[in-house]
Amino acid sequence: MSLETIMEEARKLTDAESRRLSAFLLSLRREPGFAEEMTRMIDDKEPKNWATLEQFDQRYGIAS
Predict the structure, then answer these.
(1) CB-based contacts of 46: which residues, under 8 Å, 6+ apart?
(2) H/E/C letters for each residue in 12-44?
(3) What pLDDT does 62 receive?
(4) How is residue 49 annotated by DSSP?
(5) Which residues of the chain have pLDDT under 50?
(6) Distance, CA of 26 to CA of 34 (rounded, Å)
(7) What is the C-alpha to C-alpha distance for residues 24 and 18, in angstroms, rounded to an integer?
(8) Contact 62, 22 (CB under 8 A)
(9) Cβ atoms 38, 44 nearer than 8 A
(10) What residues have CB less than 8 Å from 51, skipping those under 6 apart?
């Protein structure tokens, strides 16, 4: 299956399916320290440190 085919199929997903796919793709990232930073951000209990989805998308280059 080509990347173009996968992308076309991804466009057909529901919002919930799209979010699940995005989370899966993020889990595949291999940059040094990425998983640790995500764990730290997820575990942060301080609301002032939380980011909106838009801010997260901008920071990690995820187009919606």
Answers:
(1) none
(2) CCCHHHHHHHHHHHHHCCCCCCHHHHHHHHHHC
(3) 60
(4) G
(5) 64
(6) 9
(7) 10
(8) yes
(9) no
(10) 41, 59
SS3 1: coil
Q: Rounded to whole angstroms, how far apart are CA atoms 58 and 63?
A: 8
53: Cβ–Cβ under 8 A, 6 or more apart, which residues? 64
The pLDDT value given to residue 3: 94
pTM of the model: 0.57
Measured at the alpha carbon of residue 60, what is the angle toward residues 25 and 54, in degrees to the nearest 5? Answer: 105
Distance in angstroms between the alpha carbons of the first and the last residue of the chain? 23
pLDDT at 23: 82
